[in-house]
User: Which sequence fits this backbone?
């Protein structure tokens, strides 16, 4: 089973990469509650694409496993995995395990 | 143009080989791939033996490009196969193979390349389409359809990748003296050339000239375009 902490750290590194690319004054906090997308989210849809891509890259670098996060399974869920950093981390853990 | 990292698929022979030699001559660092080994030796050339439709090996190649060069500036999706046959006689296996190489291969290369190009907010992607699509060539139904897919993909990908500084264009060469058309009878080729505004066979120079234009940094405002050679 992939270590939950290692997954979280990989997701946070992806958040760092995303933040470097965001306009001044916009940043995602490295906290499970940080909102990514939805009514209260600060990110544009293209930023979410960037974050997902960065997470896939970080997971590959950390675990040597290629995962595809944005697929039909993720999109059709009642609770989107892309709402918060925490829900994204949970979904990645699910994919890895 | 300063030295760039240029990736060319289908690099062993034909147009791909000519492109490799052209961009090496311009001083760029060139990565090529094809199913068989290349005999080209140059300090600035790296060759990968792979099938462009094989995801795992394609991703491994990009990991190595990222590790070695840290960037990719230009991708030229040249790898392509054709098989002339009547629709009534075309096997499903061959049709699938053509779609896999010509379309899926192009799609995967674009995806992986754009992920790398995005980091520098600069990229130039040129996909090889074909005059077989607008000319609706009989005997080339599946090939023309696979290249039509490349054209649609190019136009949509151009929109999705524009905000990252990546342009995506397609070029449609006319018949050029390569293995791809070796099995096409001369009479058929003459008929085809007759449909062009400029009635002559294409040359490697025609192709490199157009690609040079599309990949120039100054061409940053040109994307989602499909340019056919010869006035088709």
Assistant:
């Amino acid at each position: 089973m992939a270590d939950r902490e290692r997954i979280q750290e990989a997701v946070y590194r992806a958040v760092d990469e995303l933040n470097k690319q965001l306009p001044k004054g916009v940043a995602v906090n490295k906290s499970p509650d940080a909102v990514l997308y939805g009514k209260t989210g600060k990110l544009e849809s293209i930023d979410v694409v960037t974050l997902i891509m960065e997470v896939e890259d970080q997971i590959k670098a950390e675990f040597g496993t290629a995962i595809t996060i944005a697929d039909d399974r993720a999109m059709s869920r009642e609770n989107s995995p892309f709402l918060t950093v925490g829900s994204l981390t949970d979904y990645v853990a699910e994919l890895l395990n | 143009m300063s030295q760039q990292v240029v990736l060319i698929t289908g690099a062993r022979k034909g147009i791909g080989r000519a492109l490799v030699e052209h961009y090496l001559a311009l001083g760029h660092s060139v990565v090529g791939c094809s199913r068989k080994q290349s005999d080209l030796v140059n300090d600035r050339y790296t060759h990968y033996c792979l099938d462009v439709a094989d995801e795992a090996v394609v991703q491994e190649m990009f990991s190595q490009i990222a590790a070695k060069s840290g960037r990719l500036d230009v991708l030229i999706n040249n790898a392509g196969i054709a098989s002339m046959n009547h629709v009534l006689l075309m096997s499903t296996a061959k049709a699938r193979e053509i779609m896999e190489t010509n379309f899926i291969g192009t799609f995967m290369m674009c995806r992986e390349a754009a992920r790398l190009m995005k980091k520098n907010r600069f990229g130039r992607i040129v996909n090889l389409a074909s005059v077989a699509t607008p000319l609706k060539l009989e005997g080339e139904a599946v090939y023309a359809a696979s290249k039509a897919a490349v054209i649609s993909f190019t136009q949509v990908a151009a929109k999705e990748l524009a905000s990252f500084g990546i342009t995506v264009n397609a070029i449609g060469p006319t018949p050029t003296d390569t293995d791809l058309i070796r099995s096409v009878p001369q009479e058929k080729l003459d008929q085809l050339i007759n449909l062009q505004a400029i009635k002559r066979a294409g040359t490697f120079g025609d192709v490199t000239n157009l690609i040079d234009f599309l990949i120039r940094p100054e061409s940053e405002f040109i994307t989602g375009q499909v340019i056919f050679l010869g006035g088709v």
Remarks:
- The two ends of chain A are 6 Å apart (CA to CA).
- Chain A has a mean pLDDT of 91.
